[in-house]
Design goal:
Elements (H helix, E strand, L loop, with lengths): L3 E9 L6 H11 L2 E9 L3 E8 L2 H12 L4 E7 L3 H9 L4 E2 L6 E5 L3 H12 L5 E6 L6 H11 L4 E3 L1 E2 L5 E3 L12 E5 H7 L2 H11 L4 E5 L1 H6 L10 E6 L8 H10 L5 E3 L2
Parallel strand pairs: 6-13, 7-12, 7-13, 8-11, 10-14, 11-12
Antiparallel strand pairs: 1-3, 1-4, 2-3, 5-6, 9-10
Protein name: DUF3388 domain-containing protein
Pfam families: DUF3388
Organism: Oceanobacillus luteolus
Length: 263
């Protein structure tokens, strides 16, 4: 029988020595293997488990419900954010009103890169938006995640080096294994019809597309924010406000030697 991964997260009600050992022994008696374990905030622990029989997981859950020294918070098939919690020992924060919006601050760039790399490894169409003020690390994180995922990245529009707008791609660049990066501000303010024709071609590819400033991008296209699979917000600090007036003015004032690349 194929082994199945499970995610377990619990909170210590009584933090006594040997508690983790007792839980490990219980898992062993149920023939459940521990793949990874890590600590979380507020006296919590998270584990990635491997079991051949789902019935054993149900038995584990029933037993743990009778134990008063821990409180089981989650026991389920692991989601991507669960894997990130086990790997980094830290939660990925989502918007309370929009669960597909994921929030990071600059000192969490390592987790952000790892998170995006896992998204980039998935096959097929995926549309990801990235919000953030200038110079917070958006483009660098996207490129680093592409490298981590062993994917080639292509700028359709960008301010990474100089303001760049592509009108065409060469044959090999239409590879659906590539990561296509679009800057919504640059495309809206600097692009011509040929560029928008290219964007429509790219958007129809079964590949990963990453759009910086998605709110600006949807103003100039037929797409809406509902079309995005994830919206990632990156801030310098928790209380930073992302304001688009300053983003548009700063993006268009950078690199006055603007180049239109027509391949």
């Amino acid at each position: 029988m194929e082994r199945t991964e499970w995610y377990l997260e619990y909170e210590n009600q009584i933090n006594r020595p040997g508690l983790l050992g007792d839980i490990s022994s219980l898992l062993g008696m149920l023939s459940i293997n521990i793949i990874t374990i890590n600590g979380l905030e507020n006296s919590r622990r998270c584990l990635l488990l491997l079991s051949e029989h789902d019935e054993n997981i149900k038995r584990l859950e029933s037993i743990l419900e009778t134990v008063d020294i821990i409180k089981v918070l989650k026991i389920r098939k692991p989601k991507l954010k669960d894997r990130m919690a086990v790997r980094h020992g830290k939660y990925i924060h989502t918007d309370n009103d929009d669960r597909k919006t994921v929030r990071f601050v600059r000192n969490e760039l390592g987790i952000l890169v790892d998170f995006m790399a896992e998204l980039f490894k998935q096959d097929g169409h995926k549309l990801i938006g990235v919000r953030g003020m200038p110079r917070v690390g958006k483009t660098e994180s996207i490129v680093a995640a592409s490298v981590s995922a062993n994917k080639r990245w292509l700028f359709v529009s960008s301010t990474m080096i100089k303001q760049t707008v592509r009108n065409k791609l060469i044959a090999g660049e239409y590879n659906t294994d590539n990561i296509f990066i679009i800057d919504g501000v640059v495309s809206k303010k600097r692009a011509n019809e040929e560029h928008w024709r290219l964007i429509r071609e790219v958007m129809h590819l079964p590949a990963v597309k990453v759009v910086e400033h998605p709110d600006i991008f949807v103003q100039a296209t037929e797409y809406t924010l509902d079309d995005f699979d994830y919206i990632i917000e990156l801030r310098s600090h928790e209380d930073e406000e992302i304001t688009y007036d300053s983003i548009e003015s700063q993006s268009l004032s950078q690199n006055s030697g603007f180049n239109m690349f027509d391949f």
